[in-house]
């Protein structure tokens, strides 16, 4: 079963301080945590893909009617806190395991090494019905 | 299959040459590739039991050509007469010219989209499997297979894709650009999943080295090879214990690869004896000056500034101007450097490199608030995770420690795209 674990710019549950105001060693620890988590998931054969997305000010919105030139704008976007920041796609045995991974990711260390409690959305990826 | 490693090496070296001969003669990339695969397979099984033939290249060409002719005959009946001519031809004259060069020109044809040219070069000249190329660029294998076959189709539709003569200089510069892009991809992307056989930088160096052996007199080819070697020599020192980027000025120079530096400098010196021309040779000269400095403070910034000015004279390029701004700051002070960055604010509005460099220059000038603002802007604009991490950390350290004399050095990655 594949799940997408979605990360937004929403405020974390236990941390109000934005990352660019953390102490250098806390940032370094956070980066280490993310890297290690990725390696663990890859080693367990559960990682399909993980990507961080560039920030809102790099984003564009495109709409087209299929005939004329598409309309490209830099908005409107949802509020920053709802804005997609990145995702993991994992292939796991059960929904419980997906939640477990999300919980682990959510507990990434913040200022003083305390878990920040990031809000992580868990979404099953739809698939074609199994072939007979 | 239990092949002796020397057969494998031999086949890998010969494959692009044989493919070059066939594509050049018959013009059909797809068919030629299949035929070469067949010939390689036959060779792999036969040579191990019977030993390689006296002329392995001729052997492969002959076998591949026969397969090719078979395929053509079977597929296109109306081309039967031409086919007979192909089969009669003896591959002796082919040995006089190394068709690998033609293969480079073909795969890097300026009319091909760069992504296609890169994939085709790695596959046809480098002998990498589609699966390996896909892994290097982090795309599914089927995507890469489609990209390659689309590119081959584009080639098949072209008139005289091999035409040379006056166009050769343009063709060569397209080849160099593709090789440089392959190198840069390997050099900058530090994503975990890499090539299984070799990483892209190593592969780019190998291909450029092979090209340099074909064109030893061409100073731009030598310049590019020197540039790659001198840049790659710093690889081990470019990242810290947490995988974070370490700027040139803060790198532990004892970890630079001296063998690569020596080779790079040797190539550079030889090529420069004919004069200092061409963007790659000039860039290599800059990399050479960095490599030559035992300590950051020994860096000959005045000479580097001069070299960037020369590169800029070859053609205006905002990225080069940005690098010149860094050198200017090192020679004439941060204010002069910052003033120069203003001139490229517009073309580089969406590039994170501009605020990153400005951040460094403000930090150098002691303006902490301005430096922080620029670093933060750069961090939100970059699409590279290690670079974002580096910028976040840099800003955080600046906030905690304040401006220090020791951190007043700058590194803008050079680029001549």
Automatic annotation (TrEMBL), chain A:
The lineage of its organism: Bacteria, Bacillati, Actinomycetota, Actinomycetes, Mycobacteriales. PANTHER family: BLL7171 PROTEIN, BLL7171 PROTEIN-RELATED. This is YCII-related domain-containing protein. Residues 1-106 form the YCII-related domain. Belongs to the YciI family. It holds the Pfam family YCII.
From TrEMBL, chain B:
GO terms for biological process: DNA-templated transcription initiation. Belongs to the sigma-70 factor family. ECF subfamily. SUPFAM superfamilies: Sigma2 domain of RNA polymerase sigma factors, Sigma3 and sigma4 domains of RNA polymerase sigma factors. This is RNA polymerase subunit sigma-24. Gene3D superfamilies: 1.10.1740.10, Winged helix-like DNA-binding domain superfamily/Winged helix DNA-binding domain. GO terms for molecular function: DNA binding; sigma factor activity. Residues 104-155 form the RNA polymerase sigma factor 70 region 4 type domain. PANTHER family: BLL6612 PROTEIN, BLL6612 PROTEIN-RELATED. Keywords: DNA-binding, Sigma factor, Transcription, Transcription regulation. Residues 10-75 form the RNA polymerase sigma-70 region domain. The lineage of its organism: Bacteria, Bacillati, Actinomycetota, Actinomycetes, Mycobacteriales. Residues 171-272 form the DUF6596 domain.
